[in-house]
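User: Just a sanity check before I run the rest of the batch. Below are the structure tokens for the first item. I only need the designed sequence back.
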């Protein structure tokens, strides 16, 4: 159902079509559309709290919902919102109780002036932008699939989760630091020289994309909550901080799958430019099987199996006999790829010594495929 200029009794200025006599319902799609006969900005007053199923702005010239900031609340029952063009403003509080898609077209924008409420997940797509107020009680998740989310204050998402995707995070002038409850995702988040605090009391950083994720943060991270690090076989989550990482009040929460006891692999779980403190506690079923090293290779946090000793592996294509396990020249691997496979501890301190000769990436123990397109596979940390 359309609620827009065709339902507005007066043109331009302030109008009052959303009152007790003429309102969209919680199951309606409210389309604030264009009108070829009227190119002036339009304000719609909310006389009472309202609910709509979907809200769509389909007009180049601006709409403003509610003339007084925070006077009433507009609830999106489906969580879905669309902006096809133009720059529009919602002065009322906006409640998002359900998971929805916010499709804001490239070049379009939505400015939220009232408080953002609810716990529904908001996934931003479309390439446009949304401006989040400085103070909110919103406790849901904002997923940056595409487009730009601008934070007006350091507490804009203080109770919320931010999931990193291909979108961007921007900041209003004067915002030098900000706080989140949780940070998730597989991608990169550029803080533009700002610092980010993940609060305690359930606060969390979790690089997540399926089971394993890689999360990069360009800026300083003060982690007061937990770093949840998933480990699956030889792979682990990774947190990469281009700035200072403060973990002096943080918990390392290790989640293991397909890992033997005692473990055969180690894991680099974080890197940093500078580090403050060590994890206040470490939890996980196999946590006691590892030592947490905080300056591994200079600027990495690593899980090192207890009793780990770096290997020196030998490769010689001319070797005859021996165990061919790389433990010495007499027992050298005949194929380079076998040695590369054997260094898959992920810790970057193994060495491979290779005798003079010609080695092919398609050759390994028990296999010779004559594949001219084959390449050597280098495990992480080698």
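Assistant: Here's the designed sequence for the first item:
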């Amino acid at each position: 159902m359309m609620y827009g200029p065709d339902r507005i009794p007066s043109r331009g200025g302030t109008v009052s079509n959303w009152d007790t006599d003429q309102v969209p319902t919680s199951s309606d799609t409210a389309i604030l559309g264009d009108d070829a006969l009227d190119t002036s900005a339009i304000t719609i007053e909310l006389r009472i709290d309202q609910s709509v199923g979907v809200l769509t702005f389909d007009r180049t010239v601006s709409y403003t919902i509610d003339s007084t900031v925070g006077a009433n609340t507009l609830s999106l029952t489906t969580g879905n919102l669309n902006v096809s063009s133009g720059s529009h403003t919602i002065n009322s509080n906006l409640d998002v109780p359900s998971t929805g898609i916010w499709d804001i077209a490239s070049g379009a924008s939505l400015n939220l002036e009232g408080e953002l409420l609810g716990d529904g997940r908001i996934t931003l797509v479309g390439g446009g932008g949304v401006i989040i107020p400085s103070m909110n009680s919103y406790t849901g998740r904002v997923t940056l699939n595409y487009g730009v989310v601008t934070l007006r204050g350091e507490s804009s998402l203080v109770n919320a989760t931010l999931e990193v995707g291909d979108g961007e995070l921007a900041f209003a002038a004067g915002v030098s630091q900000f706080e989140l409850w949780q940070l998730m995702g597989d991608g990169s988040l550029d803080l533009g020289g700002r610092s980010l605090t993940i609060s305690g009391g359930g606060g969390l950083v979790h690089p997540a994309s399926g089971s394993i994720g890689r999360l990069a943060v360009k800026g300083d991270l003060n982690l007061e909550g937990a770093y949840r690090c998933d480990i699956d076989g030889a792979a682990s989550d990774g947190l990469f901080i281009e700035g200072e990482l403060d973990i002096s009040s943080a918990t390392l929460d290790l989640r293991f799958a397909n890992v033997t006891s005692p473990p055969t692999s180690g894991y680099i779980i974080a890197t940093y430019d500078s580090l403050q403190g060590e994890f206040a506690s470490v939890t996980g079923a196999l946590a006691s099987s590892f030592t947490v090293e905080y300056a591994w290779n200079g600027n990495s946090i690593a899980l090192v199996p207890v009793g780990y000793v770096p290997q020196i592996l030998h490769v010689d294509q001319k070797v005859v006999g021996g165990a061919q396990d790389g433990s010495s020249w007499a027992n050298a691997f005949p194929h380079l790829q076998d040695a590369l496979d054997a260094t898959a501890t992920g810790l970057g301190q193994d060495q491979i010594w290779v005798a003079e000769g010609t080695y092919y990436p398609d050759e390994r123990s028990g296999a010779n495929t004559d594949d001219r397109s084959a390449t050597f596979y280098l495990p992480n940390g080698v």
